[in-house]
Amino acid sequence: MIAAAAENNALGKDNDLLWHLPDDFKRFKKLTSGHKIIMGRKTYESFPKPLPNRTHIIITRDKNYTVNHDECIVVHSIDESIALVDNEIAFIIGGGEIYKLAERKSDKIELTRVHGTFEDADTFFPEIDENYWMLTKQEFHPTDDKHKLSFTYLTYEKKETVLKNL
Length: 166
Prior knowledge:
Blueprint: E1 2-6, E2 10-13, E3 16-17, H1 22-32, E4 36-40, H2 41-45, E5 55-59, E6 72-75, H3 78-83, E7 90-94, H4 96-102, E8 108-114, E9 123-124, E10 133-141, E11 151-158, H5 159-164
Parallel strand pairs: 1-8, 4-5, 4-7, 5-6
Antiparallel strand pairs: 2-3, 2-9, 8-11, 10-11
């Protein structure tokens, strides 16, 4: 899973982000380019067009939903989306409901923790269960002329995976 969430786990409001963090966008592009990205229909529809160099797997309950782009595949469940990933890296990119469905099926979380709280958000990232996830890497990014908010890149891995590799 890959996400940017505030300290109160806020992800967005009205199908849009609550902040503008250019370095986080660059990191997202670097990590996800060349891979499959799995998302809900609302997340997909928040993009002006499909993101380049990525296969989009869109989850929707609407059996009649179609997308006219070769790089997009429409499915109707999280399990159906994961079945399209064959021993390769794929990223769950949102939204809130999809993150909740995918959390136990994922083996890593790349989270940008945005240092602030946004009470008016309408979409949230699930609480990270530290009994299940282990923080393995963190990198702080201070505010600067392009970033009004500071943030920290956090990498979590499933505890059983981390412990197995020790």
